[in-house]
Design a protein that fits this description.
The protein is α/β, with parallel strands linked by helices. It is built from 14 helices and 14 strands. A 6-stranded antiparallel sheet has the order 13-12-1-5-3-14. A 6-stranded parallel sheet has the order 7-6-11-10-9-8. Helix 12 links the parallel strand 9 and strand 10 (278-282). The protein starts with 8 loop residues before the first helix and ends with a strand.
Length: 346
């Protein structure tokens, strides 16, 4: 059932979210304006009473801090069919402080109520994409995977992981929906829970090897019960050439994943004739740790909280032209701010 759009303040008063529901907004509630700030609905009433609701305006979006742009496809889906034109950077483009990242042109009635939604979509996705790009650049060509779904509300986990892949440059994501939206298959090994319940890492590794489709990497956690180096050699000896990698996720209570630990395991694998086995690290990974762990021999990185907890890039929308007349509030320069990097996308 499609929610009725909130066109007037009286619609807000009549709206009841209902009981027994999750707290996150449905797609229909977003599209119908139920996640906007109420003052934009009040604005519709005021402008309608003034006969100015359908006035043609041009609005620009910018951020006070630079970053990696993401989230614009959602804005397009929000406004497609409304008669507006959208110009923007491409997802994955970098931008500087106060650079215009998007421009919307059309009747105010077509998009004004959605200002809250538009800014939120861009701010969150851009923040996640920026953090992901920092990790990717620190890895200097080695794979980075986004494992942050558990650190955010499930309503937005797929948005985050899609942004990390499409705009941030991560090669994979563990969240099923997020990966699929990014056009890839989800990636991930197995959790400690499987090994703890089964009771033995080697037994899990053998069963895992048996049921995984051919061509999918065999990557095994090696820090559950025994010394990581000991467990690594045990698994490598059993699976041989079929083992693709071992994952280190040693908790902070045991010192975490250190460069010395990575270096030791890498050396022991090489000495055992298992140079083909990659050392993959996860758990509290950030750009600084990626650099030192990469130097020690880590081949890939699973990043969770650093991407998930990234601060949104606060976005601002300013009306700059009203009925072809340059106009702006005090402190802003009236008229279009030229940015040759913008492309028309709607």
């Amino acid at each position: 059932m499609v929610s009725a759009r909130l066109d007037r303040l009286s619609d807000v008063a009549a709206f009841e979210p209902g009981e027994g529901r999750l707290f996150s907004a449905t797609h229909e509630e977003i599209l119908s304006g139920k996640t906007t700030d109420v003052y934009f609905v009040k604005t519709r009433d005021i402008l309608d009473a003034c006969g100015r609701l359908d006035v043609h305006v041009e609005a620009e979006v910018f951020a006070r801090r630079g970053g990696v742009f993401a989230g614009i496809p959602e804005v397009v889906r929000l406004l497609e069919g409304s008669g507006v034109r959208i110009f923007s950077l491409r997802e994955g483009d970098t931008f500087g402080p106060k650079e215009v990242v998007a421009r919307i042109s059309g009747p105010y009635s077509a998009f004004g109520m959605y200002e809250t939604v538009i800014l939120g979509m861009l701010a969150s996705s851009t923040g996640w994409a920026t953090a992901a790009r920092e990790c990717v650049e620190a890895a200097d060509g080695k794979p980075v995977l986004s494992f942050g779904a558990r650190h955010v509300h499930p309503a937005v986990s797929s948005v985050m992981e899609r942004a990390a892949v499409v705009a941030g440059g991560c090669v994979g994501a563990s969240c099923i929906l997020g990966a699929k939206l990014a056009g890839i298959e989800p990636k991930g090994t197995i959790p400690h829970a499987a090994i703890l319940i089964a009771g033995d890492t080697l037994m899990v590794a053998r069963v895992y090897d048996d049921f995984l489709p051919e061509g999918e990497p065999r990557i095994i956690l090696v820090d559950t019960f025994h010394d990581e180096a000991e467990e690594t050699l045990r698994i490598a000896g059993a699976l041989g050439d079929r083992l693709s990698g071992v994952r280190l996720d040693t908790p902070s209570e045991r010192g975490g994943v250190t460069p010395d630990l990575v270096r030791e395991i890498r050396s022991r694998l090489d000495m055992a004739g298992a140079g083909h086995v990659d050392v993959i690290v996860s758990g509290g990974i950030n750009p600084e740790r990626i650099r030192v762990l990469s130097e020690a021999g880590a081949a890939a990185f699973g990043v969770g909280s650093y991407i998930a907890h990234a601060a949104p890039r606060d976005m601002t929308m300013d009306i700059k032209v009203v009925e072809n007349r340059p106009l702006a509030k005090r402190g802003r320069i009236p008229g279009i701010t030229e940015n040759p990097s913008l492309e028309q996308i709607l």
